[in-house]
Amino acid sequence: MADPKGFMTTPRQDWPRRPVEERVRDWDEVYVPGALLPIVSKQADRCMDCGIPFCHEACPLGNLIPEWNDLVSREDWRTAADRLHATNNFPEFTGRLCPAPCEAGCVLAINQPAVTIKNVECAIADRAWELGFAPPRPPDRLSGRTVAVIGSGPAGLAAAQQLTRAGHTVAVFERDDRIGGLMRYGIPEFKMEKVQLERRIEQMRAEGTKFRTSTAVGRDIGAEELRTRYDAVVIATGATAWRELDVPGRELAGIQQAMEYLPLANRVCEGDIETSPMSAAGKHVVIVGGGDTGADCLGTAVRQGAASVTQLDIYGRPGAERDEDAEPWPTYPKIYRLSAAHEEARELRTAPAADADARLFAASTLRFTGDAEGRVRSLHLVEVDSNRRPLPGTGRAVPADLVLLALGFSGPDQEDGLIGQLGLELEPRGTIARDTGFATNVPGVFAAGDAARGQSLIVWAIAEGRAVAAAVDRHLTGSSRLPSPISPYDRPMAV
């Protein structure tokens, strides 16, 4: 450790965000460009090198956090990049999109603000690209074995890169017209500019990975045909079957799923269309769901010029500090967090009905009402207790011209026919069943990521991709030197 007293002398300082009034007028990332590098070395000094790094256990990738913190404090960017990439294929993704369970597990977080691990990770990744420390790594020789990866989200891309580097010939099949899965069309540009995604794809192409876009396996190409053409198949299609809201008035026009709304905004940023046909401009928007997808809808609606935006969260407002009895360190606590989108909503006062940052906590939707043309005009809600039971006398209505449902996902989409054509067994909750080696009931077919685990974090998806790659490599060759950071049954730390 470079500074044994760094955690005592240096306060936590996060990557500063651009002023709200400036950033809501564009789709660029919310952070001040270039403002992280001058502060990150001193922030890395705060790492205690505690001897028992719970941050490792909190991160499913097993990132070597104290090691690269020490290297960043010394500004040894090349070695830091090597250590970071040893466990994480895409640190520039996780450095922007992961909620950082590693910071919740930081030993310093017992009684102080945690080390800014996520910021340090992002700085290393960006410097690696800037200084040329992330070159393609094609294999020395080919194995003669072929693998099809279905789905190009973080799990699919991680599996494909690992297997390509092991010498197998890998083709990634993606049903959308561009590679990236939800990172492409589900994550707004202001959270991660797509240049981050594009340069990884180009790196993978240079290594030998093949990409097949606009190809839905099960519809555009038969699943059994694909299975006979390749020595192994990895299903990493994600959990894209969205949850519904079964209340009166759901049939009204103007009530959309979040993943119908967000891709159109991203297509505007890609230059595919000039304006979104679901634009929030001038509308009263209500978002049902208090998670990250709801926050993405919030930031998007603000940038589109909504008249108002309100977000409903069925859970009560969490406290500012960890509840040591319910969620003791080092578990990931449910505390009040202010995302960039919520900060924007608070300063711009987008939700007159809300107390603060556009969120109405402990609020449950009862029904929708509309106008004579069948378009939604109001959402009727009621406050609930901690058991989600309605509280008498708390019902009210909020104006709603556009309602966005961000209620999460239940499992993989089955409409393309992939699951049925292969005869894959499913778990009771709708995810793909697999054994301890990531193998499904169909020989040679493996499953990874949210399609099998269920809706989870990007770090778990990448860890699953790396682990399934090792399983496939072992299946094809009899052994594997690829890392396998998790098993299919590992779960985040919990009480």
Automatic annotation (TrEMBL):
GO BP term, example: glutamate biosynthetic process
Residue runs in coiled coils: none
Keyword Oxidoreductase appears in the UniProt entry: yes
Pathway: Amino-acid biosynthesis
Domain 4Fe-4S ferredoxin-type: 38-69
The entry's keywords: Amino-acid biosynthesis, Glutamate biosynthesis, Iron, Iron-sulfur, Metal-binding, Oxidoreductase
UniProt keyword Nuclease present: no
Membrane spanning stretches: none
PROSITE patterns with a match to the protein in the record: 4FE4S_FER_2 (PS51379)
Highest taxon, organism lineage: Bacteria
Gene Ontology molecular function terms on file: iron-sulfur cluster binding; metal ion binding; oxidoreductase activity, acting on the CH-NH2 group of donors, NAD or NADP as acceptor
Protein name: Glutamate synthase subunit beta
Organism of origin: Streptomyces cupreus
Species classification: Bacteria, Bacillati, Actinomycetota, Actinomycetes, Kitasatosporales
